[in-house]
Amino acid sequence: MSEITNGIKNAIVNIKIIGVGGGGNNVVKRIAENTDLDLDLIAVNTDHKQLKSLTSDNITKIQIGTTLTKGLGCGGNANLGHEAAENDAEVIKQALKGADMVFLTAGLGAGTGTGALPVIAKIAHDMNILSVGVVTVPFTFEGARKQKLAEASIKELMPYMDALITVHNDNLLKIKTSTKLTLLNAFRMADMVLRQGIRCVTELILTVGVINVDFADVKSIFQQSDHPDALLGIGESSESAVDAVKEAISSPLVERSLSGARGIILNISGNSSLSLYEVNEASKFINEHTHPDVNIILGTVINDNLGDKVRATIIATDFSDNASPNEEKASTENKDTATKATTDNNVKPKTDDSLKLPDFMNKEKDNKKSSFSAFPFFNFKNDIK
What domains, with CATH codes, occur in the chain? Predict the structure, then answer.
């Protein structure tokens, strides 16, 4: 009798998380402090002082543009950030080698993150790496120039993203406890949203559950649409999985309905008493509130650290309506402006050199992917560190 040997190969998924600029570096730092998942963490910056502050041995630090900035930041100059990344493109390529999936994260609106992130995104795209962007748009109080730079950077990113999660910091102020939020904690919360958005996806792939969601599942959902817009919701409930799902999708931070979503990843985490009935009811609820042809991938993870709470993580993609909330808002604002201009001939358009876009953002794009916007929601209490 011949001997039959079954060889089972380990499926190793290499996930890299690249935080660019001050905001992105902070996200990488907090992930290093709060995860035991097998992730490659990379911090990219022009600012030597910022990189030096990252003391974790688990973070690879890449300083770009040393000849341009002399080890300093970009001073809000996105052109400089863009040029710095282009000058060190080979270093970035080496850092990306071997990646199956990459998360690109930054707080947009300033110099390094705004300018360098699109360059890094294009490199990852050209290397055929599954790419997910998780970025923030500045608070209104940070000024119109930063807002404009952030939106322009997002448009630069879109052609190279398989999914792009955009968090408008102003929406954090819609949370009930926001009136008591200190300025310091407001920025910490923005960093935390980025971290949570990345963590929930990596846990889906790398954590073994009763019903698993693996890398192939995530990849298929992110790549089933030509548009990179993705919605991320996280909710918790001590009552049921359905209530956790409702919490995730009814947050004031979620600006888009799931009704048009044709791709859904639903991950439900709870203790060992999590029942089949609860999971089934939660899945039914999602089915009833999404597109009739929705493709749902369900994953469950047993996590006794949650106590009596159930956590629902929803990733929604492939919306049947191509325009994102941001595009609809911009369209409305443009119409309002045009109407006002025709009814008031005495009003001249404002020109302000300080609001002009960096040169690299004014180039015509051959490949235009439309749509972005997604807003994570979860229980912020006791999670700001």
Answer: 15-161 (3.40.50.1440)
Helix axes 21-34, 183-206, angle to 10 degrees: 60
The structure's pTM equals: 0.80
Q: Which pLDDT tens digit goes with each residue over 116-163?
A: 999 999 999 999 999 999 999 999 999 999 999 999 999 999 999 999
- Measured between alpha carbons, how far is 269 from 217 in angstroms, rounded to an integer? 17
Percent of the chain with pLDDT over 90: 46
Model confidence pLDDT, tens digit, residues 246-271: 988 887 666 778 888 998 988 888 99
